Every structure is written in C-alpha cells, then in structure tokens.
Target: Phosphomevalonate kinase
Amino acid sequence: MARTCPGEGGVTAFARPGDGGEKATITRRAPGKLFIAGEFAVVEPGQAAVLVAVDRYVTATATAGPGSDVCIVSDMAAGARRFERTGTTLSGDSSGVRHAVSAIETVEQWVAEFGQRPAAVEVRIDSALHDGGVKYGLGSSAAVTVAVAAAVSAFHGMRLSAGELFRLAMIATVRIDARSSGADLAASAFGGWIAYRSPDRAQIRTLVGRDGVGAALRARWPGLAVRRLPAPAGADLLVGWTGTPALTADRIAALDTRNWWRTAGYARFARNSDECVRGVAAALRGEHPDELLRQIHRARRLLTGLDTATGLGIFTERLAALCAAAETAGGAAKPSGAGGGDCGIALLGTGDPDRRTELTDRWRAADIRPLPLAVAYPEGTPVDQQS
Model:
C-alpha cells in the first residue's frame, strides 16, 4: 500500500488560553525545505515534486498581548509591527511579515467561525533560514507560514494534525499568491522526505471565500497528494549555498507573462518532469542509489532544457560549478528550486569520504558554501499512515 501522510479528520479540541486549552505562551517551529525534483512543473495543479525537510528552522512564539491588537516581531523585518483588528482582517504595515499576517488572519477567521473571539496575541518570529539577512533559499516564507499558523492555532486551543496544519498554511498562502504550489508548505508541515502533488489553489481560494476556512479545510482538494518517502539508501545528500538569493515568484511570473504553461513546450516538460519525479520516488522506495543518481542527472537536464528554451537564468555560474564539481566526484547534482542563486543539491554514493571531501573542497574553491544540513523529521506526530 502507499504510505500516506497523516492528517485526515477534524480538529481534536478547541479552548481559549487559560480555559483548559494550551498555555498562554506557545512555541512552535517549522523546518526549511529542499526540492529534489519537480521544480516549475509542480506549479500546475496535479503535478508532482519530491522534497525533503531540513533542520534549519523558523520558530514562532505566541504570547498573550494587551488590549485586542496583534503584534509581530520578526528577525527578518525591522521593528515591532502592531496591527488593529477589523473583524478578522489585520490593518497595519505588513512589509516583511505578510506571510505571518496572513497566517494569523486565517487562524483567527477559523476561530471566529467557532463563535469565539480571537484573543490579543504577540507573535515573535526567529529564523535560522538566513545568513545576516540573506536567505539561503530553504523556503523561509513557507516555514514562517507553517510555524506561525501552528503557534497561533495552539495559542487559541486548536490541536492540529500535520495535514490540517498544511491545509491551514495553504489557505493562508493562496490569499497572498495563488500560484504558490504549496510543496514547500507540505515539506515544512510534514517533515522528512515527501512526494507531493499540488491541488487547484484557485479552487481553494474560491472555497474559502464562499464557505469559510473550516469548510475549506474539510473539503476535498482535487489533485492534492502527500506521501512519505524513505531517505536515500547508499547515497548522501549534500547541499551547497551560492551566497546569492533568488526569488522564485519572479521566475514563475516571467513564465506566466509568456503564457508558457499553455504551450507544447510546457506539456513536454511537465510529462518528463512527472516521469522523473516518479523515478526518484521509486529509486528511494526500492533503495537503488545508482538509479537515484540517474534520475537526479535527468532532473538537471530538464532544468537545463527549460533554461535554454526560456532564458530564465536558472543556472548561474556558481550553480553550474556546483553541478560540475559533483559530476567530477562521481555524483549527480542540480539546482534546488527555481535557480538563479540560492542552493544546489548533490547526491553522492556513501562509503567514500575522500570523494565527499573532494566535492566540498571544489565547492569552496568556487565560492560555494557547503551547508551542514540533516533531514528534519516530524516532531511528536505519527510518521505515516496506511492508505
């Protein structure tokens, strides 16, 4: 049977802080992510990707605040931001914290649907997904959304499964950008290695607007699938950071402008990407490291072809050097995510520390910083369920 992620069923409890629910100070954290395969294609509903959650975290702490306002303090934005409530809408300067604001608004709308009045709350956000304010490209916006949604939900007495947390974060995200695939949210909410298929986000936004947050959480989301995958057997995952931040939304917008998603070129890319993602998942499940490396080679070729056809600038000089170094060391590598900077990944056979050292030395010589990352597994939630 397929191994599927937990998350079916309803909310397990609701209580106000101090009324038998959670304590008045709640801390939750959410991991960053890396794309292994499926970038770009997964933006379209029903398309697939493989990702892994990594042990760099965004931590959100929710505490009782004075009055009826909401205050957000983030190490990724200057100064404390105070927001006034108008119903379940927060009014104030959301620059640098808009994903946190949307997460809070979404949770509070859900709380209001229970007939409860959201309590005043202060939310502090601390991120290990950047270096001196420069993002690594590990999905910081998604991790912020998941961590804040988890903390504020628990603050209001909501106890959520990983699946409910993902859906809540997805609703908060589509309110900002309906083109976001949600793959990074799934990795952050579920942890570990996952295979993901994206839902129709326009439909989700319609559901929320028509029926509310609670009904949208319970509704069927066509196209959505999240399944656990085992970690690679016989292969190590290495991560290199180029030191240059990149904006995924800019590259997606460039393809939107060209209407690329409706072209024959996209259809071929999507078909090949889906086959590659299936190949990666099968190699992981079957513990076939050589086939896994072959599929990573294939994923890189697909991105190279896309870059050549569209001129997006996926492969920077450093990302090209990152991949070339892995090839020289006997591994396989590719950009992780939309490219143009951020991180690249390499898969290298285990059991040969000299090759690993050779690869990281070559990266450093090319001004690529190896990141000491490990897989982030779920904290306090079931690892999987049988479908």
